Amino acid sequence: MNQPVNSADIHKAIVEQQAAQDRRKMILNGVLLVFLLAAPFMMYPVFLMKILCFSLFAVAFNLLFGFTGLLSFGHAAFLATGGYTTGYLLSNYSGLTTEMGILAGTLASTVLGLGFALLSIRRQGIYFAMVTLALAQLVFFFFVQSPFTGGEDGMHGIPRGELFGLISLDDNMNMYYFVLAVFIGCYLLVQRVVSSPYGQVLKSIKQNEARAVSLGYNVDRYKVLAFVISAALAGLAGSMKSVVFQLASLNDAHWHMSGEVILMTLVGGMGTLLGPVVGATFVVNVEYQLSQGPLRDWVDPILGGIFVLTVLAFRSGIVGELQKFVKKNLG
Amino acid sequence: MTEPYVLETRNLVKEFKGFVAVNDVNLKIQKGHIHALIGPNGAGKTTVFNLLTKFLIPTRGQILYKGDDITPLKSAAIARKGIVRSFQISAVFPHMTALENIRVALQTFEGTSFSFWKSGNSLHKLNARCMELLDSVGLAEFANTTTVELAYGRKRALELATTLAMEPEILLLDEPTQGMGSEDVDRVVELVRTAAKGRTVLMVEHNLSVVSKLCDRITVLAQGAVLTEGDYATVSADPQVREVYMGSDGSGERGASESHENAEAAQ
To answer: How does the record say this protein sits in the membrane (chain A) (predicted)?
Structure first.
């Protein structure tokens, strides 16, 4: 209208920019992959697996929180449901291969996630958080009361078994590479979801829900789907965790855990892909290091302090702040 | 006899607790018209908009689109039927680029909006149409700009382009010139005039000079009810309209403050 602009050129520039972004992402992912492949030779594999399981949990949570704008305060329910289901099945049905047990745990939390979503999705903001918290507390009490979970004692001695009935997972290295493969698969899935046509709609809903409605989107359905995917991946994280530690405990179902995943996501950077991974790594490490030293009784207050500091001073989290820095200084 | 009205309300009522915001409103919007909804603050103009697009549920009454009763439909369904609204405060997706803003609207009809497994690159085929729409409102050069960085007038232009991307049959514009300087107002008048070709437009507008330039028909609302209806000449000559706008009934402060606002808007 004002001055002649060549639309085709601009379009080409946008596509090229997108491609360049994708290339950068690939390079970053590649570097991380090499590191993760080599890591068990330098660090204790079980500790690494703990980080990967919590990373997956946080990545799943962030899909809902960071990319859809829904703060669930009940994600512990999915972690625990995955863990208990897998633990119960693997403990009681010796014919079941490990991956089947994990799949069943994931499925159970997917179904639970659908139930949660249908009951909570019409609420907004704090009300949504409260409904998810209340539902998760119901699930917690169910696990406390049910005899099969072992109540306060937890479920012990879950057999790791054999992957596809072939590869023994009692070997920590085998177990590690299995967990890593699952983690990478899920991470790439979330990366895909976020950039997919569906991800664009999610973004729009997060940024201006009324406008998304006025463009013909039935936003509740999109939110339900995001919730279900998030619950499924959180359940998968719980399932794997129970196999890795051969243990499923009430800790995973406690609202504390729902809070911890919020902390991980915020510290790492909500709404970024890598943020929850960095956040989970950070929190798991801080917890571990502190529990080894004289400050072992101060873990919670210190994490609380980190939380406050993040919210007050580093809103975008570690990865978010880094991204800002790079954008500002390197073009 | 064919139905001359694309959009019609019958005895539309919206009651909030102890307050009737919209009282027995019968609107008839003729196909191809630019129809204005005017009235003093609190007359219920935006409430009517919210009722038409089901952002609020009517207490009583019917809404008809091409003769069909669409009263029970939800907001999203109404938008897909071709009745698309804009908002009083500029409604954009602030952290998406201008192009992505428009693309989200185009995606509504793609049938892939639930496809979470598909590559984002599958949306590139929509980019050409996005560029056309951006160009039509003079924003082509800002295609790759994050919307939050655009100036206010440009955000409103982007919003209009996004609304047009839905190929609406009826365009509902809620104060398209609100908060704009006079140059921007002229631009918007031109944009609306272009956009209205082959469409029906219903707009809430405070700026009477805009209304006089654009609109074929005007409905005046006061205190939730239709006061009068007609073309600009008829309406502006109506003593009742002068009364609610200028407060010539001597109703004191309220009338005075409104006439002040109105004088401002009419400049």
So the answer is: Multi-pass membrane protein
User: Which one has a higher pLDDT value, A304 or A94?
Assistant: A304
Cα distance between the two ends of chain B: 43
Name every residue whose Cβ is closer than 8 Å to that of residue B59 and which is 6 or more positions away in sequence. B13, B14, B15
* Cβ-Cβ contacts under 8 Å, A17 against chain B: 144
Each residue's pLDDT tens digit, A101-148 = 999 999 999 999 999 999 999 888 899 999 999 999 999 999 999 888
Distance in angstroms (rounded) separating the CA atoms of residues B203 and B176: 8
Question: Which position has the token pair 């529990």?
Answer: A291
Element of type H or E holding B13: strand B5-16
Contacts of B8 (CB under 8 A, 6+ apart): B26, B27, B28, B29, B63, B64, B65, B67
Going by C-alpha positions, the residue among A322, A278, A238 that lies closest to residue A35 is A278
Quick one: closest CA in A to B122, which residue? A197
A220 touches chain B (CB under 8 A): no
Please identify which residue in the block is written with the tokens 């400049």. Answer: B267
The candidate with the shortest Cα–Cα distance to B185, out of B164, B199, B206, is: B206
- B7 - beta bridge partners? B29, B65
The three-state (H, E, C) secondary structure of B62-98, written as one string: EEEECCEECCCCCHHHHHHHCEEECCCCCCCCCCCEH
The phi, psi pair for B45, rounded to 5°, reads: -65, -50
Helix axes A299-313, A275-292, angle to 10 degrees: 150
Q: Which residues in chain B have Cβ-Cβ distances shorter than 8 Å to A208?
A: 91-94
User: How confident is the model at residue B93, as a pLDDT?
Assistant: 93
R_g of chain B computed on alpha carbons: 19
Count the alpha carbons within 13 Å of A182 in the hemisphere toward its beta carbon.
Answer: 28
How far apart are alpha carbons B68 and B77 in whole angstroms? 14
A23 CB within 8 Å of a chain B CB? no
B113/A203 touch (CB, cutoff 8 Å), yes or no: no
**pLDDT for residue B229 is more than 90:** no
| Structural contact between residues A265 and A65, judged by C-beta atoms closer than 8 angstroms | yes
**What is the biggest distance separating any 2 CA atoms in chain B, rounded to whole angstroms?**
66
Q: Which pLDDT value is given to residue A5? A: 58
Does the distance separating the beta carbons of B138 and A203 come in below 8 Å?
Answer: no
Please judge whether A212 and B104 are an interchain contact, meaning their C-beta atoms are less than 8 angstroms apart. Answer: yes
Chain A, nearest residue to B107 by Cα: A197
Helical (H) or strand (E) element with A24: helix A7-38
Distance CA B24, CA A158 (A): 68
B95: chain A residues, CB-CB within 8 Å: 203, 207
- Residues of chain B neighbouring A219 (CB-CB closer than 8 A): 76
Domains of chain B: 5-82+169-266 (3.40.50.300), 96-167 (no CATH)
CB proximity list for B11: less than 8 A, separation 6 or greater: B24, B25, B26, B60, B61, B62
